[in-house]
Amino acid sequence: MATNKIVVLGAGVSGLTTAYLLSKDPSNSITVLAKHMPGDYDIEYASPWAGANYLPVGKRGSDHEKWERNTWPALKELTEKHPEAGIHFQETIVYNRTKDQGSATGDWFSELVQRNPWYKDVVPDFQEIPTDQLAPGIDNASKFTSVCINTAIYLPWLVGQCRRNGVVFKRAVLKHITDAASTPHHHTGHKPDVVVNCTGLASRTLGGVQDAKLYPARGQIVVVRNDPGQMVSISGSDDGEDEVVYVMTRAAGGGTVIGGSYQKHQWDPLPDPNLAVRIMKRAVALCPALVRDGQGIEGLDVIRHGVGLRPLREGGPRVAAERIDGVAVVHNYGHGGFGYQASFGCAEEAVRLVQSSLSSRAKL
């Protein structure tokens, strides 16, 4: 019989992964409360807009590296054993231009494009591309096997795994984090023992949290039907320091995501038509296999344009425990543009903090 009553706030990839791992323990009774659920497309809800893939960006020796390192085995296992999760392996090429260092996108990609990066021993088939095979202006490049996730399949798959383990999902809009503890728990009528906060950018305004270190990095994408057969990205562009190029094909007919932008402190929810044209031109230039017979952007078959707000946080994600007005809270938010590729590592740490909080309560 479940004895630990837990409420998870947020149903993006961080909230769903945390709820999924918590639900594997039959002693946990879990409710997910969220304003947005899989199937919604909203500027406040970052997870559906993500590529999503595994391109490690955590600095060597950091918690971020640890989270990404610990996430790869889980994504690899899902890809190999659970095709219904909507993830597939894809060859990826990463190009670096030294001149991008110091720009918004260059800083974002700085670890990814290192020579001899830490993740070379994590991902399969890693190899540096010989210098004599690089186009002018490219200083170094590597290729390896990564994964690309069809978010429209994967997020509902996580919901399904949670449901199978008894997790209850409810829509809710909370003004204060302690509101999650004022509602009786669905199974027992008792208040929850722990609240897990995975509200992403909403933690800026959520009462009791109001984390001023959070800010958006606006990402604009174009989703097309074209399939170039590989994932490609580069450290920056000549169109502006917060514009970048990446191309990735989602599993199971999810289309190819081409991007993008990394516009810090920019909240605009509407796609910029001029930026969309630049995104498409850069993608075709970097990855000619996107189109046939030397065509330009007229060869792209567009499904839709999209904008998402990455939940960036100064100092990195917040995975930590505290008490707020007497309520035990575990935070897991602020993952910027790497929520999927750090999802299991961060969720595993959040689960350990929940367990620690529950054992402290048991000793009282």
Please summarize what this structure is.
The chain has 364 residues and is of the alpha/beta class. The chain has helices spanning 13-23, 63-81, 104-108, 151-164, 179-182, 273-286, 343-363, and strands at 4-9, 28-34, 87-96, 127-128, 140-149, 168-171, 194-197, 214-224, 231-234, 243-249, 256-261, 263-264, 302-313, 318-324, 327-333. The chain has 7 helices and 15 strands.
Topology, element by element:
Elements: E1 4-9, H1 13-23, E2 28-34, H2 63-81, E3 87-96, H3 104-108, E4 127-128, E5 140-149, H4 151-164, E6 168-171, H5 179-182, E7 194-197, E8 214-224, E9 231-234, E10 243-249, E11 256-261, E12 263-264, H6 273-286, E13 302-313, E14 318-324, E15 327-333, H7 343-363
Helix pairs in contact: 1-4, 1-7, 2-7
Name the descriptors:
24% helix, 15 strands, D-Amino Acid Oxidase, Chain A, domain 2, 364 residues, 2 domains, Rossmann fold, six-stranded mixed beta sheet, nine-stranded mixed beta sheet, DAO, alpha/beta
Give a description of the structure.
With 364 residues, the protein is α/β, with parallel strands linked by helices. It folds into 2 domains: 4-48 and 152-213 and 314-362, NAD(P)-binding Rossmann-like Domain (Rossmann fold); 87-147 and 214-313, D-Amino Acid Oxidase, subunit A, domain 2 (D-Amino Acid Oxidase, Chain A, domain 2, 2-Layer Sandwich). Helices cover 24% and strands 27% of the residues. It contains 7 helices and 15 strands. The strands form 2 sheets. Strands 3, 4, 5, 8, 9, 10, 11, 12 and 13 form a 9-stranded mixed sheet that branches. The protein has a 6-stranded mixed sheet with strand order 6-2-1-7-15-14, covered by helices on one side. A hairpin with an 8-residue loop joins strand 9 (231-234) and strand 10. The chain is globular, with a radius of gyration of 21 Å. The mean pLDDT is 95.
